[in-house]
Amino acid sequence: MIALIVPNLTNPMFPYWSHEILEVAAAEGFEVLVVATDDDPARLEAAARTLVNRNIDGAIVLASHREDATALLTLREERIPFTFLSRRSEYVSADFVGIDDYTASRQLAQHVVSHQPQRPATVVGPRFSTASAQREKGMNDALSNARLHVPTERRIATDLSRAGGHRAARHLMELPERPDAILCGSDEISLGVMEALAEDGIEAGRDMIVTGFDGLRHTTSPLIGLTTVIQPLKEMGSAAAHQLLHRLRSGTYDEHRTVIFPHTLHIGRTCGCPRTTTHFTRKDT
After folding, report:
1. Domain 101-230+265-284 belongs to what topology?
2. Disulfide-capable partner of 189 in 63, 184, 265, 273 (CB 3.0 to 4.6 Å)?
């Protein structure tokens, strides 16, 4: 049996990855125990101890905290292999599957800059996530290079949920100077942002630039038309599962492997321009 440790099951990203991992594991004769931590380090640590007590064979971790390695060290001390998916620890090395979050967010922000906003804002997930931290850095570096200053009150970290995006947008709309572009670190956050804007009669793409990140199927549909970064979710989930199962079957503890998948910019209508698609190449190290 392997474990799948996720932050929550409300953001569609995590159930989607869970489905892919369950499919691969079942085909290889493994059962999967899904554990949701609500991004709480204490719950993550308790989950790690429980997995050790249940003699779990290995784990795929989507809920790591970049500066808190306690739970991961618990698994490592018991020689339980684990693979990071999407986010990782800065202090504990392991196999990793993801995309280049920094480059993807920087490229998306450069596209936003082409629309000449004057007061951009950024809304990302929790900064203890390496993915969220890199996405925020990429956005802000691109904006800074364009001489667009983003003050602290317009740099927000929130929950990876619609509710988190809604709260962030309400804060931004109450500022003396409202932003004219909101760059979001996840599609779910962007949906919450757009819902809050709609409550004020503000339409994304027409009155306000809004972008997302993840490329969920419903957000890139013509119904919503979100401008976002698309991650190859199916391929990433499958690769993480195969990587862990390879470790289990080979019994090796050799050098950890990082697989970086290509991302795609999906240009919808929420940035206010015609739709195009741009591809970027894969890195595999």
Report:
1. Rossmann fold (3.40.50)
2. 184
Q: Contact, 105 vs 229, CB < 8 A?
A: yes
CA 137 to chain centre: 14
Q: Where exactly are the structural domains of the chain?
A: 2-99+231-261, 101-230+265-284
Strand order in the sheet with 155-157: 155-157, 120-124, 181-184, 209-211
Tokens 């936003």 found at: 112
Residues 6 or more apart in contact with residue 55 via CB below 8 angstroms: none
Beta bridge partners of 157: 124
Q: What is the CA radius of gyration of the chain?
A: 19
**How far apart are the C-alpha atoms of 119 and 180, rounded to whole Å?**
5
d(CA 240, CA 24): 10
In this structure, which topology does domain 2-99+231-261 adopt according to CATH? Rossmann fold (3.40.50)
**Phi and psi (nearest 5°) for 65?**
-105, 130
Distance of CA 139 to the CA centre of its chain: 14
Cα separation of 256 and 90, whole Å?
14
Best CA proximity match to 123, nearest among 216, 217, 9, 208: 208
pLDDT digit of tens for each residue in the chain (285 aa)?
999 999 988 888 888 899 999 999 999 999 999 999 998 989 999 999 999 999 999 999 999 888 778 899 999 999 999 999 999 998 899 999 999 999 999 999 999 999 999 999 999 999 999 999 999 999 999 999 999 999 999 999 999 999 999 999 999 999 999 999 999 999 999 999 999 999 999 999 999 999 999 999 889 888 899 999 999 999 999 999 999 999 998 877 678 999 999 999 999 999 998 755 554 444 444
